[in-house]
């Protein structure tokens, strides 16, 4: 790539005794990019990226000028740019299929006559194994060891495969299991805020902003450390690591002004739930959010990271915080080198990327404001992270949900005996209380707060209710260490919050089974059981199949609800229990003060702690060292493996793509309403024995006890395509019971036979019949985590197009990346307004000829009585790069053909 320097931005920066090359925004402003000093900080990062990669082809002078013009047009450019992040972050759920695809690409490259060694990450890739530990054992000192033992038993094949990848691919590192959640490892260790690399042509060291994309939507957490990053699907991440730019439209940036200070007793979780609700209401899908204002002056990076983490929940691409003294403090505390810290400060000041209390506010597309003094104790639930409920009305709101959400009006006092136990349970009882997830377990203030609340509760003689499954899954080993130093773990243990593992657990559905007698009581009596977790996701069916209402809360409130045991108690004023002195104990009696929390933080969290814990981060424990692997350029596939298989994406692939065809006489696989999440679409959670995936495993001599989770089997397309659209709570509006109610679960009606069957079985039958498929949906289709299998599974089922009222950003992009066409209705049109029932045939004209980004097309609907409707659609292939990917059948095929040529 031959680089240009149209605005004379390439300059040198002296820091100590080192000289760096960098691309100076102030110099570019002098040389034709007037006004760029007023850009939001996040936009300055994008602009620097374009200046550095200007080559006249993927990045042109006009692209750079379009970003510079942002100040005047407030992001209304509708201009496509090619963005190249510095690195890629993966977790193992999404990382395994990405490495599987790379291994498959090596074989396909050989078949096309190319060099398989070309298939290698071209930018640094870090994969952190954090999504596989399950809370099987809990509430005992042996919980951690037993869960680790089970993790390695279940995931031996996957871990051997990842160890092969670590040795086979260049630029690819693996952080072993038991280290922590990828986002916390990223925040505490991997991120540098300013990145450096040696120019291979000149040997000169170049300094530039640390940026990344990640295969987990909560990659945004690192925005709290002024690192621009967001979640993409695995297919986009694979393209990025293979040297392809991330194609994106120049974003709007919503400024979020923070003023004031949090009041005594308020937590970062209360704040982030408030921010999430406000931004969801505002509508920021596909936009950047940037935080500014005097409220940042005293806000820690940990609190900023908590807010950045939940960008997917408020719908934004990212929630960015600029570099300032707080960022420098964090880099110092987490033991980054003195040289790096000096570079970050010098670079930020030289670039106009340094924020102080006196910094002028940037220009934004739009703004909103929050006085931190107005934040109150909050939860979110029972189904969505944006549905904030203030603590003082949580009991009343749950009662309303019992009526409206769960249709259980009048059953508030129903309780049933639990077999073999000396307690009963009822609607609203908290059966899971989990301190879990990257959102909060990265934040010392709420974690220490939970430990102190536990200490105070134990001192009063309180205990967790016996029906509550309690767990503590910290985001990194740092937390274990400061709990030990603070002598708080013993108090958490006394309430059942024993360490169960390091990694994502309950928040991603790895909550493990409830005790059999509790599960039986819930299911036999159709109880609305509750989980309270310190996570970021509470979508229906996500946390545990036995639990229907899920509430997000701060770690201290998780402990409080374990003590109370029910959502039918107003814990803001009702007693949590009776103390050892016979007196009622209230939340206010055991809630720690912010001064006390800060004293513990200052006493226990030091740079030496981070330095020692991360000194040997890639080595792993004895379990990891014992994983054996056969090295080699190509992976030796085991055709008997139920975890890792060679996917069929490249079968029959030719050197040139075949012409795109219109979609003719397609059948409808599913009719869905609003807010269908990637959790609904993508295989996640438990594999049921009577499901298509369960049948497959049983046919392959895998016992039900060894099914493991869908997430751990993402490297096997046979299982994953069987689990697509198979969520137990998904509702295909085509399928009704005898009473006319919509049936829950992954079913459809095959046409024209009218037979009800699993969606997978119907899709395979349609494939045998040579019938293409489409899916119809409502608003915000694909909300939630960046799950590549939501798009891969859709493709493998034979779906040619998804037609919705609107899409979530990542999933729309992923569909295109897998060769599935996304369309949106115009205006207020919906499948309901068109009167569709699911037995119609659909033809879409305009794909075969003259396909362009956002092209207006026509859908032809033929009803069973022969009536024909013609409906306009907009094709949401948004950019020319996306059009190329679609023309090749997907992004991987495009990259493979480019490398083979």
Description:
There is one protein chain. This protein is an alpha/beta fold. The protein folds into four domains: 10-83, no CATH class; 89-193 and 209-372, Aconitase, domain 3; 378-605, Aconitase, domain 3 (2-Layer Sandwich), CATH 3.30.499.10; 648-678 and 733-900, Aconitase, domain 4. The chain has 32 helices and 36 strands. Strand 31, helix 29 and strand 32 form a beta-alpha-beta unit. Helix 2 (41-53) packs antiparallel against helix 3 and helix 26 (692-699) runs antiparallel to helix 27. The mean pLDDT is 94.
What are the key terms here?
Aconitase, domain 3, alpha/beta, 901 residues, RNA binding
In short:
The protein is of the alpha/beta class and 901 residues long. Strands 26-31-32-33-36-35-34 form a 7-stranded mixed β-barrel. The chain has a 5-stranded parallel sheet with strand order 6-5-4-9-10, with helices on both faces. The chain has a 4-stranded parallel sheet with strand order 14-13-12-15. Its EC number is 4.2.1.3.
Topology:
Elements: E1 10-15, E2 18-23, H1 25-30, H2 41-53, H3 61-68, H4 70-73, E3 80-83, E4 87-91, H5 92-111, E5 125-128, H6 143-168, E6 172-175, H7 182-190, E7 194-198, E8 205-209, E9 211-214, E10 228-231, H8 234-241, E11 246-249, E12 253-259, H9 268-282, E13 288-292, H10 301-309, H11 311-314, E14 318-320, H12 325-333, H13 338-351, E15 366-371, E16 378-380, E17 388-390, H14 394-404, E18 415-417, E19 424-426, E20 430-435, H15 438-441, H16 444-460, E21 469-472, H17 477-486, H18 489-494, H19 516-524, E22 530-533, E23 549-552, H20 555-564, E24 577-578, E25 584-585, H21 587-590, H22 594-604, H23 607-613, H24 622-625, E26 663-671, H25 678-681, H26 692-699, H27 717-723, E27 731-736, E28 742-744, E29 747-749, E30 756-758, H28 759-769, E31 773-776, H29 788-796, E32 799-804, H30 809-817, E33 821-825, E34 841-845, E35 856-862, E36 868-875, H31 880-887, H32 891-900
Parallel strand pairs: 4-5, 4-9, 5-6, 9-10, 12-13, 12-15, 13-14, 20-21, 20-22, 22-23, 26-31, 31-32, 32-33
Antiparallel strand pairs: 1-2, 3-11, 7-8, 16-17, 18-19, 24-25, 26-34, 27-28, 29-30, 33-36, 34-35, 35-36
């Amino acid at each position: 790539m031959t680089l240009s320097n149209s605005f004379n931005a390439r300059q040198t920066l002296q820091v100590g005794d080192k000289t760096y090359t960098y691309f100076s925004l102030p110099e570019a402003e002098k040389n034709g990019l007037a006004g760029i000093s007023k850009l939001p900080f996040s936009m300055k990062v994008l602009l620097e990226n374009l200046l550095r990669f200007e080559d006249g082809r993927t990045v042109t002078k006009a692209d750079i000028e379009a970003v510079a013009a942002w100040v005047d047009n407030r992001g209304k450019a509708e201009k496509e740019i090619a963005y190249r992040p510095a690195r890629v972050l993966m977790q193992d759920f999404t990382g395994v299929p990405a490495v599987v695809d790379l291994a498959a690409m090596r074989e396909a490259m050989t078949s096309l006559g190319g060099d398989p060694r070309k298939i290698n990450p071209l930018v640094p890739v870090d994969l952190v194994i954090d999504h596989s530990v399950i809370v099987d054992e809990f509430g005992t000192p042996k919980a951690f060891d037993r869960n680790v033992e089970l993790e390695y038993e279940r995931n031996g094949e996957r871990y051997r495969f990842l160890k092969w990848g670590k040795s086979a691919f260049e630029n690819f590192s693996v952080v072993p299991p038991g280290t922590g959640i990828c986002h916390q490892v990223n925040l505490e260790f991997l991120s540098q805020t300013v990145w450096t690399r040696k120019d291979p042509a000149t040997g000169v060291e170049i300094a530039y902003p640390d940026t990344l994309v990640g295969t987990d939507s909560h990659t945004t957490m690192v925005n709290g450390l002024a690192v621009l990053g967001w979640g993409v699907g695995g297919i986009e991440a694979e393209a990025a690591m293979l040297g392809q730019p991330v194609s994106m439209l120049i974003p709007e940036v919503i400024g979020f002004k923070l003023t004031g200070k949090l009041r005594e007793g308020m937590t970062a979780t209360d704040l982030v739930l408030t921010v999430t609700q406000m931004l969801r209401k505002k509508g920021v899908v596909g936009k950047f959010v940037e935080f500014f204002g005097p409220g940042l002056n005293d806000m820690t990076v940990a609190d900023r990271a908590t807010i950045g983490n939940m960008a997917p929940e408020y719908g934004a691409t990212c929630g960015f915080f600029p570099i300032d003294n707080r960022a420098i403090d964090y880099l110092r505390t987490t033991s980054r080198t003195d040289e790096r810290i000096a570079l970050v400060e010098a670079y930020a000041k030289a670039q106009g990327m340094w924020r102080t209390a006196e910094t002028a506010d940037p220009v934004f597309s739009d703004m909103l404001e929050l006085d931190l003094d107005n934040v109150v104790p909050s939860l979110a639930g029972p189904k969505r992270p944006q549905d904030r409920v203030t603590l003082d009305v949580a009991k009343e709101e749950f009662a309303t949900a019992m009526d409206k959400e769960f249709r259980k009006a009048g059953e508030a006092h129903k309780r049933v005996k639990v077999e073999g136990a000396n307690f009963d349970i009822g609607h609203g009882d908290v059966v899971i209380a989990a301190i879990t997830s990257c959102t909060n377990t990265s934040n010392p203030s709420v974690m220490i707060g939970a430990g102190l609340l536990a200490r105070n509760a134990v001192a009063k003689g309180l205990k967790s209710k016996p029906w509550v499954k309690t767990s503590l899954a910290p985001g990194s080993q740092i937390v274990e260490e400061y709990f030990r130093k603070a002598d708080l773990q013993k108090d958490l243990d006394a309430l059942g919050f024993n360490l169960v593992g390091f990694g994502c657990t309950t928040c991603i559905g790895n909550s493990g089974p409830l005790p059999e007698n509790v599960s039986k009581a819930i299911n036999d009596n159709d109880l609305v059981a509750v989980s309270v977790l310190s996570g970021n996701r509470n979508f229906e069916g996500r946390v545990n199949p036995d639990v229907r209402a899920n509430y997000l809360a701060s770690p201290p409130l998780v402990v409080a609800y374990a003590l109370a045991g029910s959502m039918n108690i107003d814990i803001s004023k009702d007693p949590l229990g009776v103390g050892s002195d016979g007196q009622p104990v209230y939340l206010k009696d055991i809630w720690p003060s912010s001064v006390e929390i800060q004293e513990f933080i200052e006493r226990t969290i030091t740079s030496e702690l981070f330095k020692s814990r991360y000194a040997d981060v890639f080595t792993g424990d004895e379990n990891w060292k014992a994983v054996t692997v056969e090295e080699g350029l190509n992976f030796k596939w085991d055709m008997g493996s139920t975890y890792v298989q060679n996917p069929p994406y490249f079968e029959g692939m030719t050197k040139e793509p075949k012409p795109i065809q219109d979609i003719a006489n397609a059948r409808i696989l599913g009719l869905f309403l609003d807010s269908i999440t990637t959790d609904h679409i993508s295989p996640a959670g438990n594999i049921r024995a009577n499901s298509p995936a369960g049948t497959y495993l049983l046919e392959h001599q895998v016992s039900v006890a060894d099914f493991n989770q869908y997430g751990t089997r993402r490297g096997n397309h046979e299982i994953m395509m069987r689990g697509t659209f198979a969520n137990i709570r998904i509702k295909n509006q085509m399928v009704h019971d005898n009473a006319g109610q919509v049936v829950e679960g992954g079913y459809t009606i095959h046409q024209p036979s009218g037979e009800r069957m699993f969606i997978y079985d119907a899709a395979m039958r349609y494939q045998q019949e040579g019938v293409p498929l489409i899916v119809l949906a409502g608003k915000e289709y694909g909300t939630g985590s960046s799950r590549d299998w939501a798009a891969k599974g859709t493709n493998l089922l034979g779906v040619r197009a998804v037609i919705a009222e609107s899409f979530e950003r990542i999933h729309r992009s992923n569909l295109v990346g897998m060769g599935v066409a996304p369309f949106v209705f115009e205006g207020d049109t919906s499948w309901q307004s068109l009167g569709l029932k699911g037995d119609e045939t659909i033809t879409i004209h305009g794909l075969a000829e003259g396909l362009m980004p956002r092209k207006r097309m026509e859908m032809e609907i033929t009803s069973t009585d022969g009536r024909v409707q013609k409906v306009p659609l907009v094709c949401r292939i948004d950019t020319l790069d996306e059009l190329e990917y679609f023309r090749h059948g997907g992004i991987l095929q495009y990259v493979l053909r480019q490398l083979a040529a």
